[in-house]
Design brief:
heterodimer, A: alpha+beta, 5-stranded mixed beta sheet, 31% strand, B: mainly alpha, 2 domains, 3-stranded antiparallel beta sheet
Chain lengths: 146, 421
């Protein structure tokens, strides 16, 4: 292969690499906007999960707060989870929180490692009060409802 | 839609671009070892800067990544134009720029009374201008270089930052007392603006005049409720501009070579015509690094670097630069939008706008979209002060993002403590 041919090929490669870079940045920014939009528009104000523990927050790139929607908020690792966290101990759909008859409720969705509210294992639907600690695997959230 | 949020992908792609680019240059240029040194140095600097941002939790991660991509494209092109003269010195400037980035970050982050120092910015700017007028060197028709002990720099670049901070004092609302009990600060800012612009006109630095003036009008547009003051400023400038066009030969030449560069192609239209030839000959994917004939364009290392990139990396390469700028400016707008502190907001807006304006003026100029005025393309062009000051601006932006992040965290903590009780 001659130099000129290599250089032609490489000029395509450069372009592709630059555009991949641009695409990956746009992708990250898109995720950012999506989260902000969900948080701003559809969530009732003052109801959210607060991430606890600085180490786990840094490890899994957690948000400080996850606003909760009225319809089921699924915590999990899978595609359909509303609050999606890349922790390998988490089930695809681990547990869900939703609002019904004037109460915020939590239910385990048959997860492998279980869900704990205030250190008690959840085996059926529980009602949440502000300040409750929800533990899934090594993640901890505080439920805040003002 | 997307499988995984991975913050490392863009950083790895940036490194890949560096490795491929410099290795290719090395083999294509007869195994010139200096290219490897430049490439290695650049990659080292980028890794150190990015690692420091991650380790020290300095907030926003994208700004420096995008800027580094622009710098990479710039350095590759500069190495190809002239390795000794531009390529190797650019690395030194980027190292200084990185230092300026962290210095600006630390200084801006830790001092909270920037909004009370308007007289300092105005005075500092005037002193720099006076020094340039008295001791300055004339390069390319503009008397805007200052040399101190063999170290040459352009004070007008530094006054850009001073000017933004000066404007922000008024627009953020933290400077609302009348001066000497009777002059509204609005008129003081207007006077300061025209003082700066006057000095720049004396130096014949038309590019910076245009940048500062558009910045001022845009800030007025963003902050003033009633449009009359802005319209008055625009009208005044239109009058002054028309007078300038009538009596200044220099400006006439610029406008004529914009309207029809082919009329006097060997003389006044030469620059713009060569630039257009270069862009046109690149095609979609370009001639390949090192295969173009970019040396025919005058000032190719600073003002006309965009044409060189277009020739050697093609239209897609040129579009990539514009896209990278759009992303950078978008991120800056986002930081500005999220900022709660009014002074931070005003400074953020000013910095964002100045980046956007510079990019628009010079890319528009070299592609014959608007009349050409010589300014550098931030982060890409060779230019000592330009690189250092652009990085310092980015450092301030970074500090704003971090300050706001921290303010939000403390607020959330106070709130949740209240909830728990």
């Amino acid at each position: 292969m001659s130099i000129s041919m290599i250089s032609t090929v490489l000029s395509y490669v450069f372009t592709v690499v630059i555009y991949l870079f641009i695409f990956s940045v746009i992708k990250l920014i898109y995720m950012d906007i999506k989260r902000t939009r969900l948080g701003d528009a559809e969530a009732p104000p003052g109801v959210y999960l607060r991430s606890m523990g600085k180490k786990t927050i840094d490890k899994y790139h957690l948000e400080r707060r996850y606003p909760l929607l009225v319809e089921p908020n699924v915590i999990g690792r899978g595609k359909k989870a509303t609050i999606r966290i890349d922790d390998s101990f988490l089930s695809l759909a681990h547990c869900q929180i939703w609002y019904e008859d004037g109460e915020w409720r939590l239910e385990d969705l048959g997860s492998k490692n279980g869900t704990y509210v205030n250190d008690i294992l959840v085996d059926e639907e529980v009602l949440l009060d502000s300040g409750d600690i929800i533990s899934v695997c090594d993640l901890e959230f505080q439920f805040i409802n003002k | 839609m997307f499988k995984k949020v991975n913050f490392k992908v863009p950083a790895y792609l940036l490194l890949l671009m560096n490795i491929l680019g410099f290795l290719f240059m090395y083999f294509n240029n007869g195994s010139d070892r200096r290219i490897l040194y430049v490439g290695g140095g650049l990659m080292g600097l980028m890794v150190v800067i990015y690692a420091l941002i991650i380790i020290l939790h300095m907030g926003e991660k994208f700004l420096i990544l995008i800027a580094n991509m622009l710098v990479t494209i710039g350095v590759l092109e500069l190495c190809r134009i002239d390795i000794t003269k531009f390529g190797m010195t650019q690395i030194v400037w980027i190292a200084l720029g990185g230092a300026a980035f962290f210095a600006a970050y630390v200084v801006y982050y830790n001092i909270r009374f920037w909004n009370k120092l308007w007289y300092l910015y105005l005075g500092g700017g005037c002193i720099l201008f006076l020094l340039t007028l008295v001791f300055g060197n004339t390069v390319g028709g503009a008397r805007n270089w200052l040399s101190i002990g063999g170290f040459t720099f352009q004070p007008s670049e530094i006054t850009k930052i001073l000017y933004i901070m000066f404007l922000a004092c008024y627009f953020s609302g933290s400077w609302h007392h009348d001066l000497f009990g009777r002059i509204n600060p609005k008129y003081v800012t207007a006077l300061g603006t025209y003082l700066f612009i006057g000095f720049l006109v004396l130096q014949r630095d038309w590019g910076t005049v245009l940048v500062l003036f558009i910045l001022y009008v845009m800030m007025l547009y963003a902050y003033e409720d009633k449009p009359w003051f802005m319209l008055f400023n625009i009208a005044m400038t239109a009058v002054v501009g028309l007078l300038g066009y009538k009596f200044m030969y220099h400006i006439q030449v610029r406008v004529h070579s914009w309207l029809n560069p082919w009329a006097d192609i060997s003389n006044t239209g030469y620059q713009i015509a060569q630039s257009l030839f270069a862009i046109a000959s690149g095609g979609y994917f370009g001639a390949g690094l090192g295969n173009g004939s970019v040396k025919y364009i005058p000032e190719v290392h600073s003002d006309f670097i965009f044409s060189a990139v277009c020739e050697e990396m093609g239209v897609f390469g040129g579009t990539a630069i514009i896209l990278l700028y759009l992303l950078l400016i978008y991120r800056c707008f986002k930081i500005t939008y999220n900022a709660k502190n009014p002074y931070n907001k005003a400074v953020g807006l000013g910095l964002t706008l100045i980046l956007a304006i510079q990019m628009f003026i010079i890319i528009g100029g070299v592609t014959k979209f608007i009349p050409l005025t010589g300014i550098t393309l931030p982060f890409v062009s060779y230019g000592g002060t330009s690189i250092v000051v652009s990085f310092a601006m980015l450092g301030i932006m970074q500090a704003i993002s971090k300050q706001e992040e921290r303010a939000e965290e403390t607020e959330a903590e106070i709130e949740s403590e209240g909830d728990a009780l």
